[in-house]
Amino acid sequence: MATLHHYPLCPHSRFIRLVLGEFGMEAELIEERVWERRREFLEINTAGTTPVFSEENGFAVPGSGPIAEYLDETRGLALAERRLLPEGPKERVEVRRLLDWFNLKFNDEITQPLVVEKVMKRFMGRDEGGGPPEMSAIRAARANVRYHLRYIAWLTAKRNWLAGEKLSYADLAAAAHLSCVDYLGDVPWEEDEAARAWYARIKSRPSFRPLLSDRVPGMAPSAHYDNLDF
Amino acid sequence: MATLHHYPLCPHSRFIRLVLGEFGMEAELIEERVWERRREFLEINTAGTTPVFSEENGFAVPGSGPIAEYLDETRGLALAERRLLPEGPKERVEVRRLLDWFNLKFNDEITQPLVVEKVMKRFMGRDEGGGPPEMSAIRAARANVRYHLRYIAWLTAKRNWLAGEKLSYADLAAAAHLSCVDYLGDVPWEEDEAARAWYARIKSRPSFRPLLSDRVPGMAPSAHYDNLDF
Prior knowledge:
The structure is a homodimer.
Chain A (H helix, E strand, L loop, with lengths): L1 E5 L4 H13 L3 E5 L7 H6 L7 E3 L5 E3 L1 H12 L13 H35 L11 H24 L10 H15 L9 H11 L5 H4 L18
Parallel strand pairs in A: 1-2
Antiparallel strand pairs in A: 1-3, 3-4
Helix pairs in contact in A: 1-3, 1-6, 4-5, 4-6, 5-7
């Protein structure tokens, strides 16, 4: 069976778990605490980051961007009308632009600081960067969520899904990030009905179910985290 | 003519300038000071980042990753044996893995802090984040260059170019980042003969020439910056 080295609240890992779910692929999940810098893990990904997807034959693909492109190249055509990276070069630009938007910009401004400060630092040793959370980083990240919700609302006012008429990698990446932030209770859903309606559509997909049953030891998710009707 | 919104010491812009050079494409360069957040620029790239490649018909592609994929999809076959993103899915994984290595990891650890602290802050207004450089960030970035040089040396000991036997996007991205750091005089080339030999090969390509004539007002490049023999 294929495997996926992941971390439960790593948004890039979650993006690929959603992608695998949409492809109907099973993969054994192996939890990786990247800050421990395990030697066997560094051998399959020198960069030391999650996720890493490995084929049954051992061929390893590190990084959510390379994994998404690889799965599209090797299995995308089989999805036919449900392909997650569309055919046309212009449509692909729009999906990849939004992948950068969420996987780089949203990640830097929101997901990465929140997950590091609120989750990872609890489990890291002192010499691994652990310790109490930095409140200023958390406050800045929380403030940034708002304009990203407005951007999602603006996109879905023009289109059925974020990058166009069909569900694409862009929706799955955006939802993966928001699901981490939502676990931590930091998405002000009540402020944006349109963004919330888009998220409710994604959240009710079967591919989303495994994410909703993730639990971080000692940290319960927000009350509505796994409520499909919010 | 096509256009490229860029910033001279933006490594992502330099990567695409090298790519356009290898494709034999001409594009009008438009310098963009991203921190000014020009309204017309935000209209073609909401994320407000360089580079943005625009076709003569106005179709805009923002971000070095999406641009590289788009150029390969629309013009890659014409390069035949010199294609910069190879044919096979496994070979493509290796190129994209290294693109992430340089465009994300090297960028976060080295290029971004050095260019922001040493260059951009000189031109930014107080309210845009300008001011004196933070020396601790500069020192950390300088220390990080070393292991990246060793990684380049390790790769080129096994292969002709970084991702395999042929020149690829991986070499151009790596060289783009190093060229920014080299402009600032922060690459300890004397410490790694193999990495230096690889860089000398890239630096002597015709596609590299325009980068070597870039000058930042009031900041001369390091003495060997445009010396093809170092």
